[in-house]
């Protein structure tokens, strides 16, 4: 669908201008899509709640005005903030809204526009996602000059990268790594000096299902239906530690520098760590790491329970494990992840039933039969995409 100069892509759930993706949140995309269905016509807030939020009333969190403000900020980066107009009790998409820099753009050649778009993508691509033919997705944190530290743009980019994989049936496993000298140095301390945005949701607002934005950057990897393997090297502090903890498996360099760092800044870990560390770290050990924010190595991380493997080439080992998982029945792998995600919350009785339900869903299905046939024939399996 077209929305003025924007192309709305329903598959990617994002909007693009001259080939540049805006990295919209799914609800921002749904909001823009709904307005684009009736361009230049006012859509009431009540209609947006019914069509986008699927609610008959304004929720206490995730309010319409908050998402409109966020959408406008992203449109402003491409000179299109005026496209979303406020009109009485509703909003409309102004398809004739001019680009902020339209006079200079009007005289660009196609080659100049393509070159400028590519340069912008390289400059602003905080997170790169590559999907191989083997079904392995490689997500790379790409702010190497700042050791992949987390500023507002980095938070948005990591969440967008994770959520872009949520519905991908062809992706069987994800490798998560950091470019440059480190995996992720944690919060960019310059963010402390940033004045709070008046439209920014409160920490207690659940903007991403069960999580706020800062939690979603770590929990999105656990929520993905396929396994995630983090390859950790260099520095992995604070928020970086919690992002790595969102992975199913962590492969760590022996000399990696790791810490649950928040207490150094007078804060508590609040990016999903307490949920993600259940079952990984003994309670008293975790308390010591949190209370003291002491640094530990990759080798010690394995002893503590925060590293699965320790190797001099964590990315190579992560890719090796990913290649193995990609050769397993993708339906069974996803079912197993769902079971793992539930095992710390459910009763024994409920887990026994959950096992049976998941098994009933995969047994005698085409991919399970192919796993048996390939094993008997001693050949590589040829699975279809996950159901």
UniProtKB/TrEMBL annotation:
Residues 1-95 form the OmpR/PhoB-type domain. Residues 1-95 bind DNA. Residues 189-209 are annotated as: Disordered. InterPro entries: ClpP/crotonase-like_dom_sf, Ech1-like, Enoyl-CoA_hyd/isom_CS, Enoyl-CoA_hydra/iso, Enoyl-CoA_hydra_C, OmpR/PhoB-type_DNA-bd, Sig_transdc_resp-reg_C-effctor, WH-like_DNA-bd_sf. The keyword Lipid metabolism applies. Pathway: Lipid metabolism; fatty acid beta-oxidation. Residues 196-209 have a biased composition (Basic and acidic residues). Keywords: DNA-binding, Fatty acid metabolism, Isomerase, Lipid metabolism. It comes from the Bacteria. Belongs to the enoyl-CoA hydratase/isomerase family. This is Crotonase/enoyl-CoA hydratase family protein. It comes from Alteriqipengyuania abyssalis. The lineage of its organism: Bacteria, Pseudomonadati, Pseudomonadota, Alphaproteobacteria, Sphingomonadales.
């Amino acid at each position: 669908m077209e929305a003025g100069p924007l192309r709305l892509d329903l598959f990617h759930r994002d909007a693009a201008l001259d080939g540049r993706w805006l990295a919209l949140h799914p609800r921002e995309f749904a909001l823009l899509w709904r307005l684009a269905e009736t361009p230049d016509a006012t859509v009431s807030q009540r209609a947006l709640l019914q069509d986008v939020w699927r609610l008959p009333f304004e929720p206490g969190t995730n309010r319409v005005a908050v998402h409109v403000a966020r959408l406008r900020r992203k449109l402003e980066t491409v000179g299109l903030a005026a496209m979303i107009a406020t009109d009485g009790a509703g909003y409309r998409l102004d398809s004739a809204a001019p680009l902020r820099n339209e006079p200079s753009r009007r005289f660009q050649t196609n080659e100049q526009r393509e070159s400028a778009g590519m340069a912008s993508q390289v400059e602003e691509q905080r997170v790169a996602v590559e999907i191989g033919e083997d079904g392995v997705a490689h997500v790379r944190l790409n702010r190497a000059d700042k050791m992949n530290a987390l500023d507002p743009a980095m938070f948005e980019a990591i969440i967008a990268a994770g959520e872009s994989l949520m519905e991908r049936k062809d992706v069987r496993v994800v490798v998560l790594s950091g470019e440059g000298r480190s995996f992720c140095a944690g919060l960019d301390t310059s963010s402390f000096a940033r004045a709070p945005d008046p439209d920014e949701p409160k920490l207690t607002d659940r903007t991403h299902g069960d999580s706020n934005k800062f939690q979603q950057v770590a929990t999105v990897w656990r929520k993905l239906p396929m396994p995630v393997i983090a390859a950790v090297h260099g520095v992995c502090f604070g928020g970086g530690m919690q992002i790595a903890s969102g992975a199913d498996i962590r492969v760590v360099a022996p000399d990696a520098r790791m810490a649950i760092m928040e207490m150094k800044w007078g804060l508590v870990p609040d990016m999903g760590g307490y949920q993600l560390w259940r079952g990984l770290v003994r309670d008293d050990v975790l308390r010591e790491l949190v209370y003291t924010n002491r640094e530990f190595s990759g080798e010690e991380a394995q002893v503590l329970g925060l590293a699965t493997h320790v190797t001099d080439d964590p990315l190579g080992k992560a890719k090796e494990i990913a290649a193995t998982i990609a050769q397993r029945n993708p339906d069974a792998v996803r079912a197993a992840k769902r079971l793992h995600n539930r095992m710390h919350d459910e009763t024994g009785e409920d887990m026994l039933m959950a096992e049976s339900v998941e098994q009933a869903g995969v047994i005698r299905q085409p991919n399970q039969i192919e796993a048996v046939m390939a094993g008997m024939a001693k050949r590589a399996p040829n699975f279809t995409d996950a159901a």
